[in-house]
Specification:
Rossmann fold; 6 domains
Length: about 1550
């Protein structure tokens, strides 16, 4: 059928448009596989099937699986339950053409079938009201927004307002009363709070839903309440959810930083453009306290719409989401319309949220601020009020007449309850008032009679008769009559409504009775306990009363047609998911006749011969067993109440076909225990404890699988759990009815973890046999030690907390464990059906009633003692583990030591195994000694020691055996790995050596030719080496065989020969590593054993035979494995022959089932051993080829990398050597040569002139006068320093122009510098870290070492280049650097040998010698400020300068005053006269010569009358030349000068410097 929706069309659209669009919507429903469910909706029983279809969190294969996936994930509290991703989509996912406004980014959503909102809406449309209620409950727990208004679907054009789903949702929030500490738990349908509706006007570029998520999440949470466009499928167009209204809640708890708003709020979100949905807007406007309108652009028509909405709404908030206007004009128009809207709508400025420019976070913050102003003034409504408004608007309400009639019936049943619940319970449920409890007590006392207690038995019999006589007078109370009449209706829908109303009304009364004065954010125990059971009334009490009516009617031997029909009603309720109470916990009694009759009726309604398995959830009163079972199996145990009636409740789960064969079971019976260790009055503690033990013993004995649900929040919880659980397991162990246990926890605290570990040890110990023959019960040990921690949202009293994805993962892990356990039960135990289950109920109740268990129900001493011994055992095992862990840490060293002794692998392994056995035996003896000492304590009963000591010792032996096997396997792997690693290392060494040879050749070629080697060339060179590496395996590759298939074939042939083909399906277990150990079961013995009455003997002999055959086959397999040969078919044949031979000679009776189970177990173990051997052989024999194949690419890349890196290193080393070190070496040699030359010059005869500045000055003047050259004199007079340096240069040139022979110490100096460099390199290599490092840091260290130790300065500017700024392996670089140094040393030797006859002097050395000689003779360097004569004082450190001779000033172009001729006077003559001088030092002012000290205080010029003959001769000799040069007149030479000759000048020069020469 097609689906139609009114709101999807424009308001004035015609009918043809509606039909066309809704046909498309019908196609979407068809694609999702939901169309059939519109006629026949899914119900709660459907969830039992859907939840168990698969045990994995699988992505849906196609869109038609999305509904099942959504529901299954929702029940598992999966955060991605709404995700619409699927593996494949139909060729045309969307009917017709996608709407044109779909984003271009939709291409990345190709795997999303629909919008998540369409999936949620479709799920609600496809479910009946009761499943909707459960969906709503789980969606709220998952922090998902919940639909309130479903869009109209053709032919219904009204739409549906949902109210019923919210009656199953409870919310805790701070009370709005005057007391700020009060909290209340209320039904979300009836809870009154302010309502805020959020709608969209037009299109938005932001996501309204993301903004609302931030508003509801608050500052410290991040919950995805509403689906938005960034989610998977969120960008896809909405088809059936357009116009839907979702709701979420803000429930404050008084947290100063965690609450968004201080008052509880209901927030509604309309999907789609609000303009297109007139009636939903009318509903939201009238029902809401405030209407929040999101918009981006406004026009006049929008203003009219807003005005209309404002007329309906009490308050309005406008959220301006505008941004990015095209121009200022558009912005101005928008602003004008917004101001007009504010004025016409009469809104205050605080009611406008704007200015965020599309920032969603900012919008959320401003919206919260705006709502904070108005929330205190909003009126409170509830969803019931909103439903009334919806009815006025012609909406369909999901609570129809049938629901209302059921409500009236529930009110009739509960009439008068609210006035006085205790009195109501006493009058209307009178059978539970005390007579039933007393009758149950009497019956147990009669059954537990003691010898010599005849009088008491008679008294009890009379009291029992009196009670039965009283019960005969019992008439059905009005409430129970109304209750039973309501249940016996043929209208199952009305009956379901009735039960739901009953639960909702009773829960409301429960919560109203509870004090809520404790802050749930501070205290885990939110609520104060109800003081008495009399004040507690739940739906289970009415169902219990119905059973008691039948039970007492049976005991009274009365026949009441009204009561006789009740078992059929009970069975029918059980079929519809209403739990059946099989144990009355308050009376501690089983209404055996009621249960028996209900089970008979149930069997009539179920298919014949359904195989059953029983799973029981056992936990304390706060363990939330009902929520756990609902999560795992989709069951509908009563949940959500504050507490439940104490007892055991049962539900049915019919497994899907896909699981029945594997589980060997069609029907699961789930049993839930409630009320264990519930706190009561002090006087009732002892009685309650005994009742708890009776209840746990009963349900434990009934179970195939016991789910221990641990939640220990304190020491009391740990004590109570240990006592009841351990006692129950001990009792059922004695009855041989102990189930397989699976531990889970709901708390991650230290107490719960310790309790889980402790209980796992208890289970393991009790799983043992006294003889210690059950050492292979690894499944029990594994199940006991694996305890998933399921932290479900039901543990939170607070709605809308972020959901952890771990919850789903752990739930699926736990479910897989439970089903795997069921599978093991099916393989080990006899097939159980409902009659056998009923028989077990009867037997267990008789055992409980008569107290035939060895441990009394009021005795906890045995359980405490057992637990204490388990603690000792655990402590010893921990010490053993710690010891073996430390021992095994030294195994590698031990293997190495044994290898040095040339021991082979088998000898090494045997030695290590012997050492392992000794170590474990020593630790085992310590544990046993500790246990023996504990058993000798005075407070331990001897009978306890006698009964349970073998179990502990067997458990210890099993643990030690497992530890030995575990360590031996590890040792085997270690030795095998050592062998393999040795072979691989040898191969690696050969490969690395061959590649190293090739690498060095390529590096040498690259260095010599200085060429760039391409990668292709390197790959070619690598291939030439790789292809020549010999493998030298000496053995052929191992042939890979399907050993499991071959063993199966051998066993299949064996079964055909023995005509056992009907067991062929058992062969599928071969190859399963988790197959449990073989155990002899009752179904292994058939009719023949019973006829011959040899059953007891057969039961004793069969396990011995099986053990012997298994050991013989194991030995055969181990011998084959030791040969290390490939598998042959004869191996399996030999094993089967051993079994057949043993079966032929056996001396007991067993059926074919025994034979096939034994052969399957032996063949499976053999197949796994041969598979392990094959894998080992493949790993060993083909290791080299595999290594070469797997590592060729790696080696090639490493070869290229090493070449590039080492080539770079050798180039960098070569560059550093030539660029930095070679100049330093040459400089060192040259500097040493310079010292030698200096010494030779000074030692020569002519070298005396350099003895002092005076000697040098004397020789300069002497050479000048002898040379008799004007040009030389002129040059000297212009700059004595320059002339002196030139003279020194000429002397050096003259020195080198001769045949200069220098002592050949250059080789020694070369060796010295190379020794210093080598030491610097070695020191840097030692100081820097090994491995990778920066080259620049290493080179800097080398330079620093040379400078610090050898005084050799290396220019480091070149190190700043990119060539040295690399990260390389330092050892490689050091090696290359040393090679480069060796090469440099060799080159230097050759150069020195070639130049040994003549030394080439560099210009640098020449200039340095010139500088050094000038530094010796320059004196202080000061000159006379007038005549430029040099200071002749020999010492450099003096403050007063003086000259021997001052020169005639004419030599420096000075003229006579008032004349153009050169002056012949000297400085000494001028300072004695009245002449003036003027220069830059006087600042162009004339100063008398006699006052020269005022300008030149550091000079002393003595006053003399005459000139020196030397300078007289010079001026006279070159007077004309000086005049020409200075362009003036010659000096007027005095007549007495004319007689001075050159000899006179020389004589005067000698006379002046005579004292200096001596």
């Amino acid at each position: 059928m097609s689906l139609y929706r009114k709101e999807s069309a424009p308001l004035n659209g015609n009918k043809s448009t509606l039909v066309a669009q809704n046909k498309a919507l019908g196609s979407v429903m068809f694609m999702l596989g939901m169309r059939d469910f519109l006629r026949d909706p899914l119900d709660l029983t459907s969830m039992l099937h859907i939840s168990n279809l698969t045990l994995e969190d699988e992505t849906p294969a196609a869109p038609n699986y999305l509904l099942q996936s959504f529901l299954r994930r929702l029940w598992l509290y999966h955060p991605q339950a709404r995700n619409p991703l699927c593996i494949s989509l139909p060729e045309q996912s969307w009917p017709g053409t996608c709407p044109p406004n779909v984003d271009e980014g939709i291409g990345e959503e190709l795997r999303s079938a629909v919008n998540p909102l369409d999936l949620v809406t479709g799920a609600y449309m496809s479910s009946n009201n009761f499943l909707r209620q459960e969906i709503t409950y789980h969606m709220v727990q998952c922090s998902f927004a919940v639909p309130l208004l479903l869009p109209a679907v053709w032919p219904d054009i009204k739409g549906t307002l949902l109210l019923w789903p919210f009656r199953g949702v409870m919310g805790l929030h701070k009370s709005t009363t005057s007391n700020p500490q009060d909290f209340q738990m209320k039904n979300m349908a009836c809870s009154r709070m302010a309502m805020i509706s959020c709608v969209r006007l037009g299109t938005l570029h932001i996501s309204k839903s993301r903004v609302l998520n931030r508003v509801l999440s608050g500052p410290h949470k991040n919950c995805a309440f509403f689906v938005h466009r960034d989610m998977d499928g969120g960008q896809l167009p909405r088809s059936i959810s357009e116009g839907m209204v979702e709701v979420g809640w803000n429930l404050p708890l008084g947290h100063p930083n965690g609450d968004t708003f201080s008052r509880p709020l209901l927030l509604a979100n309309l999907r789609g453009d609000a303009v297109a949905f007139d009636r939903p807007m009318s509903l939201l406007s009238r029902g809401s306290g405030v209407l929040v309108v999101f918009f981006e652009r406004l026009n006049e028509k929008d203003l009219q719409t807003l005005t209309y909405w404002r007329s309906l709404a009490c308050h309005m908030v406008l959220v301006d989401c505008s941004h990015g206007f095209k121009d200022a004009g558009e912005r101005e128009i928008h602003g004008r319309l917004l101001r007009k809207a504010i004025k016409e709508l009469e809104l205050g400025q605080e009611m406008i949220v704007s200015g965020c420019r599309g920032d969603e976070e900012g919008l959320a913050v401003h919206l919260i601020e705006a709502l904070d102003h108005i929330i205190p003034h909003l009126h409170a409504v509830n969803l019931v009020d909103l439903a009334g408004i919806g009815t006025d608007l012609s909406y369909n309400l999901d609570e129809d007449d049938c629901c209302r009639r059921a409500y009236e019936e529930s009110e009739e049943v509960l009439k008068g309850m609210e006035d006085d619940p205790v009195q109501f319970k006493k009058e209307q449920l009178s059978l539970q008032d005390g007579q039933w409890r007393r009758l149950a007590t009497i019956e147990k006392e009669q059954c537990r009679k003691k010898d010599g207690d005849h009088f008491n038995q008679e008294r009890l019999r009379e009291e029992r008769e009196n009670i039965l006589q009283e019960t005969k007078k019992h008439t059905v109370t009005p409430s129970m009559k109304a209750f039973i009449d309501a249940l016996t209706t043929i209208n199952t829908v009305k009956r379901a409504y009735f039960l739901s109303w009953m639960k909702a009304r009773l829960d409301a009364v429960q919560w109203d009775q509870v004090s809520m004065s404790t802050n749930p954010l501070v205290d885990q125990q939110v609520l104060v306990e109800i003081p008495s059971d009399d004040a507690f009334l739940g739906l289970e009490h009415f169902l219990r009363e119905m059973g008691l009516m039948y039970e007492l009617c049976y005991h009274s031997a009365t026949s009441d047609s009204y009561v006789i029909r009740l078992p059929n009603l009970g069975a029918e309720l059980l079929m519809y998911g209403v739990p059946l109470e099989i144990y009355d916990g308050d009376a501690s009694c089983v209404p055996i006749n009621w249960i028996t009759r209900v089970m008979v009726e149930l069997q009539k309604k179920l298919p014949l011969n359904m195989r059953t398995k029983v799973i029981t959830a056992l936990g304390l009163h706060h363990a939330k067993n009902a929520e756990v079972l609902t999560t795992l199996f989709g069951s509908s145990f009563l949940k959500g109440s504050y507490r439940h009636a104490k007892g055991a409740y049962m539900l049915l789960v019919i497994l899907p076909e896909v699981l029945r064969w594997e589980m060997e079971c069609e029907l699961l019976l789930l049993i839930n225990t409630e009320g264990l260790s519930h706190p009561g009055l002090p006087s009732e503690v002892a009685e309650n404890m005994a009742h708890d033990h009776e209840l746990t013993t009963f349900v434990t004995g009934l179970s195939d699988v016991l789910l221990l649900n641990l939640k220990a929040e304190n020491e009391a919880d740990m004590r109570d759990t240990r006592q009841v659980a351990v006692s129950a397991l001990l009792r059922t162990k004695e009855m041989e009815k102990m189930p397989i246990c699976q531990i889970m926890s709901q708390h991650d605290g230290a107490n719960t973890k310790a309790l889980a570990l402790h209980m796992s040890r208890v289970i393991q110990v009790l799983s043992m046999e006294k003889t210690g023959e059950d050492l292979e019960s690894e499944d029990q040990a594994c199940m006991g030690r694996s305890s998933p921690c399921l932290l479900g949202p039901w543990n939170n009293s607070v709605l809308y907390l972020p959901l952890s994805p771990e919850c789903t993962k752990v739930a699926l892990e736990l479910k897989n464990m439970l089903f795997a356990t069921i599978q093991r039960c099916a393989m080990k135990n006899q097939v159980t059906r409902l009659p056998q289950f009923m028989e077990s109920i009867y037997q267990l109740w008789e055992a409980v009633k008569h107290g035939t268990f060895p441990i009394p129900f009021d005795n906890t001493t045995v359980a405490d003692t057992f637990s204490d011994v388990c603690k000792k055992l655990l402590s010893g095992e921990e010490n053993l583990d710690s010891h073996m862990q430390g021992w095994f840490g030294r195994v590698d060293d031990r293997i190495s030591d044994l290898r040095k002794l040339r021991r082979n692998s088998e000898d090494i392994l045997r030695t290590l195994e012997d050492e392992t056995s000794k170590e474990i035996k020593a630790e085992s003896d310590k544990i046993q000694a500790t246990l023996e000492e504990h058993f000798r304590r005075n407070d331990i009963d001897f009978q306890f020691v006698d009964n349970y000591k073998p179990y502990f010792l067997s458990s210890m032996d099993m643990y030690c055996g497992q530890k030995t096997t575990e360590v031996n396997k590890t040792l085997q792997s270690a030795t095998d790995g050592y062998d393999l690693s040795a072979k691989i290392k040898a191969l690696q060494t050969a490969i690395e050596a061959a590649l190293e040879v090739k690498l060095r050749a390529l590096l040498a070629d690259s260095r010599v030719n200085d060429t760039c080697v391409l990668d292709s060339k390197l790959k070619s060179e690598f291939a030439s080496v790789w292809d020549q590496i010999p493998t030298n395996l000496g053995q052929k590759p191992v042939e890979v065989q399907d050993i499991v298939a071959k063993v199966k074939q051998q066993l299949r042939s064996n079964l055909r020969i023995r005509v056992l083909q009907k067991y062929i399906d058992k062969l599928e277990y071969i190859g399963n590593p988790s197959l449990p150990a073989f155990e002899v079961r009752n179904d292994h013995f058939g009719f023949r054993s019973k006829v011959k009455r040899t059953l007891q003997n057969d039961i004793q002999e069969a396990p011995k035979f099986a053990t012997r055959i298994i050991e013989e086959c194991n030995h055969n397999v181990q011998e084959k494995v030791k040969k290390k040969e490939t598998y042959k078919d004869s191996y399996a044949t030999e094993i089967l022959e051993i079994v057949d031979k043993g079966l032929h000679m056996k001396d007991f009776n067993a059926n074919s089932q025994f034979e096939i189970d034994l052969k399957v177990f032996i063949c499976n173990k053999a197949a796994l051993a041969f598979m392990e051997l094959q894998n080992k052989l493949i790993g060993q024999m083909n290791s080299k080829e595999k290594f070469l194949h797997d590592n060729k690419e790696k080696y090639m890349l490493d070869f290229i990398y090493q070449f590039r890196k080492r080539d770079q290193c050798q180039k960098a080393a070569f560059t550093f050597t030539n660029l930095c070190l070679k100049p330093a070496v040459q400089a060192y040699i040259q500097n040493s040569l310079g010292v030698a030359i200096m010494e030779d010059i000074l030692n020569k005869d002519d070298g005396q002139r350099f003895n002092s500045p005076s000697d040098f000055h004397y020789n300069i003047l002497k050479d000048l006068i002898i040379e008799d050259s004007f040009e030389s004199f002129y040059e000297y007079l212009q700059s004595g320093k320059t002339y002196s340096r030139k003279k020194i240069h000429d002397i050096l040139i003259g020195y080198f122009s001769e045949t200069v022979m220098v002592d050949n110490g250059r080789n020694q100096r070369k060796n010295e510098i190379f020794d210093k460099i080598t030491k610097a390199v070695d020191k840097a290599a030692e100081e820097t870290s090994r491995g990778q490092g920066y080259m620049q840091e290493l080179l800097t260290a080398i330079c620093h070492n040379l400078t610090a130790s050898g005084g050799v300065i290396i220019p480091q500017e070149a190190l700043e280049g990119p060539l040295f700024d690399i990260n390389t392996h330092r050892d490689i670089f050091i090696t290359n650097l040393r090679d480069s140094l060796a090469e440099l040393n060799q080159n230097m030797n050759e150069d020195l040998q070639q130049t040994q006859d003549q030394v080439d002097i560099s210009l640098d050395l020449l200039y340095k010698l010139q500088d050094d000689l000038f530094e010796r003779v320059k004196g202080c360097g000061e000159e006379c400020p007038f005549c430029k004569a040099a200071c002749d004082i020999g010492e450099k450190d003096h403050t007063l300068h003086s000259c021997l001779w001052h020169r005639p000033k004419g030599l420096l172009s000075y003229l006579c005053s008032n004349s153009s001729s050169l002056s012949h006077s000297t400085c000494s003559q001028e300072v004695g006269g009245d002449n003036l001088f003027l220069n830059k030092d006087t600042r162009d002012q004339s100063v008398p010569y006699k006052d020269y000290r005022t300008i030149y205080p550091s000079w002393y010029i003595p006053v003399t009358e005459g000139n020196s003959p030397f300078w007289m001769y010079v001026l006279m000799r070159f007077n004309e030349r000086f005049a020409q040069t200075y362009q003036c007149d010659p000096a007027d030479i005095p007549l007495q000068w004319e007689g001075i000759q050159q000899t006179d000048a020389l004589a005067s020069l000698w006379q002046a410097f005579y004292s200096l020469e001596n």
